[in-house]
Amino acid sequence: MAAAKNGQGMLYVTMQPQEGLSLDQFHEWYNNEHGPTRLRLPQIFSNGLRYQATDGQQPHFLAAYDVTDMAHLLTPTYLDLRANRSSREAETIGQVKVDRFFFDLIWTQEAPSFKPAEQCTDAEAEGRVLVAVDVSLNLTQEPDAAEKVIQWYQEEHIPILSKIPGWLRSRVLRMPSSIEGSNAGETKIITLHEYAAENGLGGPEHKASMDTPWRTEVFNKYITTKGRRTYSLFYVFGPAPRDLQHLAALPASAAFSAVSPRLTTTPGTSVDSPIISSYITTPHDGLIIPYQLEGNPSPSAPVIAFSNSLLTSLHMWDPLVKILKTSRPDLRILRYDTRGRHSIPSPPQPATLDLLADDLASLLDALRIDKLQTLVGVSMGGATTLNFAIRHPSRLQKFVACDFNAASSEANTQAWKDRIAVAEADEGRGLKEQLAGVTVERWFHPNTMEKKKEVVQWMTEMVAGNSVEGFRWSCQALWGYDLREKMREVKGVEGLFVVGEGDGKGALVRAMDGFRGLLGEKGGELKVVKEAGHLPMCECPEGFWEVVKDFI
């Protein structure tokens, strides 16, 4: 019998929710918990696709995962996923009729322009048609039936199918899989044929594939039964949960929180949007980066993202996000913790602005966000924002870069080294007991320090909660960089620069006014927030919103 292709195969799962199970609950669980957990194992699963039947038959839903090597499905890495499932998963899956199949991949033929769904945008991928055909073999009378059927597929049937308009790919697979053994059940050959949403199925080319002498011989001699299902692709997994749409339809009682995988989902209410809190693992060094996705639940809603400053967390944006949800309910809102807030890679390595920009690109990849409507960053996040526009201009429509310098100086580098020494003093207590207070006082406008004590306390506690080791390695991104010449090369991205009037006692206003004209061909406008210092969106969120709302 034909051998599997380099051990590759597929996990093929059909599902039929029982009456009484909310489809929103079923989809939210599968999209935000079950699927992403598997996509976090790229050494096992290269993709995860969800289909809905279009032929009126049950089961209505199919999930297909390409497997890099079927032997991986026998390892603890995979088996522990099922053994350690959450109570919610156990409860939900108990209300679903699930059939799991393991297929070995035998052969593939692709159109010259074929691109796997996971490499497409959602708009490009969703709606693709899948035709799944399984045939049982007459092995009792024809021991070589499998080889004969596969030969027909390879040499005649699939080459004819490839002439159908919209044909993308056909794959020949076999069950039982090699990991199940030859006694696991009836031997079948499965073919999966993929087409564009607009295609020629049912047309003359398709009819020609169904009426040849060789096909008649194969079905009369080697095949005993045939099954055929048709599906439409409706969801492509990434390793990061992102389904706000179904979450928004659930009651508050459906809120979910789990330590492993690290995931919290909060359904929407009449006064607030749904929220997903989870994490990604960077592909370049395996660092965990937490993120929060909220706002407009539509998967096609434009996305605004925020990049925080050194020593703060994604919650530094809380006051602004509160305004944004009211003023711009059309936006999805993405926040994340810059590397160094919680942990560092192993072995440790200094952060760079290039690494920080690529961290954001990795987050967008994991969330399958092709392009941001706006990116807003402050301080180190401001430098990250500008550098993201430099390195990834096709993924960004506009940006707001706040309270940063386009180039560092030797004096600044030495200042960061001195702050590291303070943070590490007394086994790290220096960050909480000394650096946090001094930093916030340096950041904030005198008006904030005098009249907004609760804001000062909030920010001081946030700074004190940073990892000392993370600070040591992440602040090195602000050593020895210069973005001024590269700024000139930015094209197709609008930029706005914003600064608090008291940042650096006014020195940063002058510095930013000096380099704003270097952006692209026309430069960027500079706007100043009154009675604010280094973090104007925290000190004076209403004032900050006033200067950026027309741009965003």
TrEMBL record:
Q: Which residues form the AB hydrolase-1 domain?
A: 308-404
Report the leader peptide range.
none
Superkingdom as given in the UniProt entry? Eukaryota
One Pfam short name: Abhydrolase_1
Its family remark reads: Belongs to the AB hydrolase superfamily.
Q: What is this protein called?
A: AB hydrolase-1 domain-containing protein
Q: What organism is this sequence from?
A: Neurospora tetrasperma (strain FGSC 2508 / ATCC MYA-4615 / P0657)
